[in-house]
Specification:
The structure is a homodimer. Chain A contains 16 helices and twelve strands. By secondary structure, chain A is an alpha/beta fold. In chain A, a hairpin with a 5-residue loop joins β9 and β10. In chain A, α5 runs parallel beside α14 and α14 crosses α16. The longest helix of chain A is centred in the last third of the chain and has 35 residues.
Amino acid sequence: MKNYHLTPEQFREEGKKIIDWIADYYENIEKYPVLSQVEPGEIKASLPEQPPQKGEPFSQIMHDLDEKIMSGITHWQSPNFYGYFPSNTSFPSILGDLVSSGLGVQGMIWATSPAATELETRVLDWLAEMMDMPEKFKSTSTGGGVIQDTASTSALTAVIAARERATKYESNKTGVRQKLVAYVSSQTHSSLEKAIKMAGIGSENLRMIDVDDQFAMRPEMLQKQIQEDKKNGLLPFFVCATIGTTSSTAMDPVREIGEICRAENCWLHVDAAMAGTAMACPEFRHLKDGVELADSYCFNPHKWMFTNLDCDVFWVANRNELINTFSILPEYLKNKATETGAVFDYRDWHVQLGRRFRSLKLWFVIRHYGAEGLQFHIRKHVEMAQNFASWVRESDDFEIVVEPQINLVCFRHKSDDDFNMKLMNTVNETGKAFFTHTKLNNRVVLRMSIGQTHTEERHVKETWQLIKATAEHLLKNRKAKN
Amino acid sequence: MKNYHLTPEQFREEGKKIIDWIADYYENIEKYPVLSQVEPGEIKASLPEQPPQKGEPFSQIMHDLDEKIMSGITHWQSPNFYGYFPSNTSFPSILGDLVSSGLGVQGMIWATSPAATELETRVLDWLAEMMDMPEKFKSTSTGGGVIQDTASTSALTAVIAARERATKYESNKTGVRQKLVAYVSSQTHSSLEKAIKMAGIGSENLRMIDVDDQFAMRPEMLQKQIQEDKKNGLLPFFVCATIGTTSSTAMDPVREIGEICRAENCWLHVDAAMAGTAMACPEFRHLKDGVELADSYCFNPHKWMFTNLDCDVFWVANRNELINTFSILPEYLKNKATETGAVFDYRDWHVQLGRRFRSLKLWFVIRHYGAEGLQFHIRKHVEMAQNFASWVRESDDFEIVVEPQINLVCFRHKSDDDFNMKLMNTVNETGKAFFTHTKLNNRVVLRMSIGQTHTEERHVKETWQLIKATAEHLLKNRKAKN
């Protein structure tokens, strides 16, 4: 009887073709323009306006993937992708994710798949160990880790847990009634402002503390602002310190900020979304000095640790503060294991109830590479960034804007802002490489973020040659016009 | 040189083995106990306490998957899984998800992969068409759809957007200062209460409206409560109506509730997380009568539409209300396409910034099955549930608690609560089937939720025989003891 499903045999056949399709993709990835060249609306217009009434052959779907979708892809996995921040994946991660999709478990509570919970707990304890994190972040102590989807969600989770601790869990009941105030730096990721808004605190009650010439938060300014706010009857409750800001990988002084937080009874959240991966190498661990003063900490294996989106690791020092904030137990989820308190139910650790088997891909990555393999690639990326920086320094026309601490180089052509934007757009439009910009001290800065899985020395070198040649060409044109 | 990566050739080999592994899993899935039989801590204890220093062979990872992880899986994809609600997947979905993992794009804004945005927009317009949703939910009108991870996140998104509309976008600035009040029924999913807490409204300001004998919200009680709250100087701002509650698939009267919301200027969110899939069939569309009065609506293809977690479809009537609430535009994300306003940037439609290529698996599912294939399976599931209900009615020892409207049967043994819990636990411990309970009017009710991809008539029949035989056996034992 026709039942519309693929049979297991058809799945074997189509699945293996897709495995080959992905391998082919990586073998040919340098042939695609890194930045998609389509115009707004072009992809949508290529797709039928009406949904299919009847099912279509699998070959047709794959054909349309090639013919209609691929031109609209910006190739984050290209070795010539240097935009924003890395979002690198790896073959082991893809395969771990495939197993997760295949099993299709819903791990909202321990009982609905004990392995989904316990593997996550174990793997996050492993990472805490691998990265020399404080004992209190481990499940064997007072804290523990949970995989969130993104650092934005971790920020929201931290803000809400901090709000509840500060108001003795009253805000959850009465709404936000106290005059809470939070602190970030002017360089902190925008997701913190978004979290403060979502949590009902209000952006007026978020202070953006000044930064120093390295774009790191100035602790004395934080201290001053907290005093002023207290004088005005406000209740300081939350500070976010960043290890590696998005714009320039600036490093906030976690220890000094943490000591202020201790004294002022503020929740300290540390956002190490991208740079956190570097903590796998001992030589970068000074960047997290003081992290034992943090109440929560997050970093994204889905940025620089070869693991597919979504995978943000969120550790807390005291898991009860999280559970007291987010727990809700309706009758239909009651079960023996939860009642004994012997297990973690991760739905009480975050916004969502439903959750897939989130840790499998991370487990595959860590076991495949081992600490040693991860360190190897982190060091390679940092080395390539440092090399790039040295070429910039050696050139007459370009300059370094911030000394690169790890894998991001902030530089600019010595010409004006317009020229830098024009240079970036011209390079990006060639499709041969892709990088992005930011503004620091109100000036356009070009960002070369090095961290894709398959980026090698030759890619970085060729991209530098391309940037230099493009700049020379544009300068010549400009002079010809004048 | 050793670079620790899998080569494309190794990926082909290991990937194809995993495809076979998944096919084998589905061919043998009935041999596993549906509910995992492990004890708390058992899986964790089987895994090394220390992370691997050196990478391990892929074969070892797969070996440990079989030997250490599989016993801790509760098999949501088993045809004998009738717990909670379905979380069904399908081979096309698994393959669509695999392509998404392989491409590894980060679709936070249009420019970072135009296809990730535009395919999502198109597919959600398709679904609106397929399900006869109001025009305003389409991107071609004032609204549009976005894929959220879960219905919990949709609820939070709706509550926050409603909060902002009600306070003229002041709460985002000042924090929650007005005395807002929200309304759900006593049967509404707990995620709404969680959302109200997270958004800084406070659970004291959430009213749980009484339900009728079918567990549907009583609109006259809603009206009365709103009047009373207004008299007390509160500002009613949000109502959630449910199409298919979690406990019993109760259907709130959306039209009557919607008319009250219109008159009282409240945001109406409709939560159709599980039952929403039924709207693919014309004969169930009366259940959504009045949905054109809604401001937002969500349903989960990851529950009953053969699509892997995470996949929650969230439609709004007015996308500007969403964007005005959630938009933040830092310099490093500025780009030409966004500035022209010609594109959607989905990071402004939800909590997260980063997002994978979320629509691919849904596109694979819709194209593979077509509207016709989806309807076929929805109707099969409903028919099986109705058959199960008829067997319950025919038996002397069991009774139907709520007349099943679609695919959930709420029933109980005519004995007491303890007996029903004992019966359920005994059946679940056999590993042959898995179902769960709830409470309605303070009595234990057993729930038979039918919606797994591979559930056939024979599975449902055998499970009913097992439940009956187990009940007889337990009764006999009880009598023997007395």
